[in-house]
Design goal:
- This protein has three domains: 74 residues; 136 residues; 250 residues, MetI-like fold, CATH 1.10.3720.10.
- 60% of the residues lie in helices and 15% in strands.
- The chain contains 17 helices and 13 strands.
- It is flat and about 95 Å long.
Length: 551
Amino acid sequence: MIAKWFKTGSPWIWLNAAAVSACLIMIIGVLGLILVRGIGHFWPTEVVRFSYQEEGGQAKTIFGEIIDSSDTPAAIAKMSGFKMADDEDVLLQYQIKTGNRDVTGADFRWLQARNIQQQSLPEDIMVIERREWGNFYGQLVAVKENGAMIASGGQAWPVAQTKIDEALSIYGEINHLEKKEVGAINYRLEQLRLKQKSLELKNKLDETAKSVIEAEKTQLKKDYEQYQTQLRALYQKIRGGSLVAKTDGAAEIEIPLAKVVRIYQPNKMNLFEKMGHYGKKFAEFLAEDPREANTEGGIFPAIFGTIMMVLIMSVIVTPFGVIAAVYLREYAQQGFTTRLIRIAVNNLAGVPSVVYGVFGLGFFVYILGGHIDRLFYPESAPAPVFGTPGLLWASITLALLTLPVVIVATEEGLSRIPKSIREGSLALGATKFETLWNTVLPMASPAIMTGLILAVARAAGEVAPLMLVGVVKLAPTLPLDGNVPFIHLDRKFMHLGFHIYDVGFQSPNVEAARPLVYATALLLVLVIIGLNLTAIVIRNNLREKYRALEG
């Protein structure tokens, strides 16, 4: 009976269904973990005041957020050096984010539950998000301006909020002037320097050209000095204010307003205030630049770099993949050579991605980029333009990596088109190229989009090759800006996948960065899903459009 049952093939169907179900459960589990940890990162957590007494020490006050807990069996705790009473079966510990790294030297500590005498949620405890040194937990004492106290006690909080809003506005002006106006002037001055050097190399730098360049430089330097005067005034204005705060150890410290991003009292916030805070933090995460070694702030440059690289890669890989597939299916004589090429294409799909990165670095960057610099950018020597990793080489490398996927998918689509359609087009007087261009390729477009979807899904998540051909930890400028030629394919860029690796494994403060890893991973998944959904919608529309012809 069992042998007969195996011959029916039913066991293999059930085994296949079980394997698919197990994979689906694991995928849902991973996505669920990322979703829960990633979404919860921006919610304002209550700050607890602990009355804590260590063994043989005096009781002291500790402020912090409860991040995690740990249950350690008594036997293991004793082996680790903890003293356990005979009636204790488990050592319960809480991981507390205490912040105040500039005061205590650490962001986190573990508290033993048995040594906690009391814990409460005072409403006056505040959290200060800073541009440096992470969060500060304490109580607001006073607000100062130019060394003089302007508010204290109950009046300090509203005055502090007002001063912080003013400081953020000034900081926004400074950021705009430095990145947009001064950045554009520096870029233009560099272009003038390169232009002058280029004319010198060509022996065309006459007095007329030199006077024109000098006139432009003089005007740019004049504009630069005006912006520098404005910046000095703004910096002077923002440096005057500070907050006086008391730590859990009762010490008072001054925190300059220039280093404050926001302050809030989580224990005092109601549900709607917490939701508003959550929205602001999430918007900051999407739209701002990173800070604190990428462990705080936003990840907009990484989002922008990922999407731009994928779009450029798609523009490169699609025509090459389609042309290769059309040649193999429609023009090449089917034989040993063609079969060998198909085997090679299929094998390329299994090559480790880091190998493509090494090839891209050696061929595209050093050889091709070096030759481009010598031919078209000799004035930039010895500084490389395209002879160094950048957005263009990263996109081409990933296009090469995903090329087999597009070729195979396009070939499958071409093979499904009935031969009668080709013959009907040829019988009506169309040439082979016209038949291919006007009939065959439009009908195969859903399959081409399928290949592109698979290529995008793989390319958006790749990290290993990008580490060699263009991605960096922090890019000071985006590849797209207002300076001619607007799209700078030679620039390095940030990437969500590499950002996750950098924050999760290269961060100087891994514990503080862990929630951001989940949030960034969730965003990377959403970006890939968004790109894929866009391609799927286009593919389905094309499929519906040509369904009648296929019938």
